[in-house]
Automatic annotation (TrEMBL):
<feature type="domain" description="CSC1/OSCA1-like N-terminal transmembrane">
    <location>
        <begin position="40"/>
        <end position="189"/>
    </location>
</feature>
<dbReference type="InterPro" id="IPR045122">
    <property type="entry name" value="Csc1-like"/>
</dbReference>
<dbReference type="Pfam" id="PF13967">
    <property type="entry name" value="RSN1_TM"/>
</dbReference>
<keyword id="KW-0812">Transmembrane</keyword>
<keyword id="KW-1133">Transmembrane helix</keyword>
<keyword id="KW-0472">Membrane</keyword>
<feature type="transmembrane region" description="Helical">
    <location>
        <begin position="50"/>
        <end position="70"/>
    </location>
</feature>
<dbReference type="GO" id="GO:0005227">
    <property type="term" value="F:calcium-activated cation channel activity"/>
</dbReference>
<feature type="transmembrane region" description="Helical">
    <location>
        <begin position="120"/>
        <end position="142"/>
    </location>
</feature>
<dbReference type="GO" id="GO:0005886">
    <property type="term" value="C:plasma membrane"/>
</dbReference>
<feature type="transmembrane region" description="Helical">
    <location>
        <begin position="170"/>
        <end position="194"/>
    </location>
</feature>
<dbReference type="InterPro" id="IPR032880">
    <property type="entry name" value="CSC1/OSCA1-like_N"/>
</dbReference>
<protein>
    <recommendedName>
        <fullName>CSC1/OSCA1-like N-terminal transmembrane domain-containing protein</fullName>
    </recommendedName>
</protein>
Amino acid sequence: LLFCIAFGGLSCQWSALHGTPHPASNADPTKVNSQGDWAAFWSALTFNGTFTITVIGLFVALLALFPTIYANNECIGLTKEDNPRADRFRWIQSSLSTTTSASAEWIGLDGALLIRYCDLCLRILFLIYVPMVSVIGSANYYCKDSKRLEHEADPLTFIEVSSIDANKTWLLSLVHAVCVWYVVLVVVLCVDAAQKDFLVRRVKWLEKLPVIKANSVMVEKIPYEYRSQTALTDFFT
């Protein structure tokens, strides 16, 4: 299957580079980087970094002003830490070291699973982003057409697909095919592991529910003739 995908990618890229252009289009449909993309990249990175630092600073200030709202478990002694607010950035270590089970005990299973979902997204993005930048970016840079890009000033152009050399397309197709399946496997395995963990925690949560709550159902749109305790009980029994 991997060979078929690699061969298909090789054929498509070879046709795109050496085939006859489509009659309806006189230009390459691939959108390439322009002159200002590198500056836009750094501008976005600077803005997002500044915004993140600002939000963290506001949180630290609000944590000191309103500890009951942002650190209530600590205030009531639930976290059992020795004066964690002595260091304003102690919450970073506490957040990273807190397990899902502890979070479920303190803030409920739904809140803990929301944090778990964010962790899952971060893990998937990290496992995909780092190899894509290091492997795909390096492969595109290695296979670039140096003569065509001799006077190119935008650094992002050297790692994009449109800059590859036609003589090295076969190698790049193999790398892309492997990376595609890597992305698929990473997402499937991470989601499957998270789903299994969720089922275990959900079953344990259901088993700990009180008997009345665990065996209660909500009934809506009851017909008029069953709107009594006796009639409704007889209907379900």
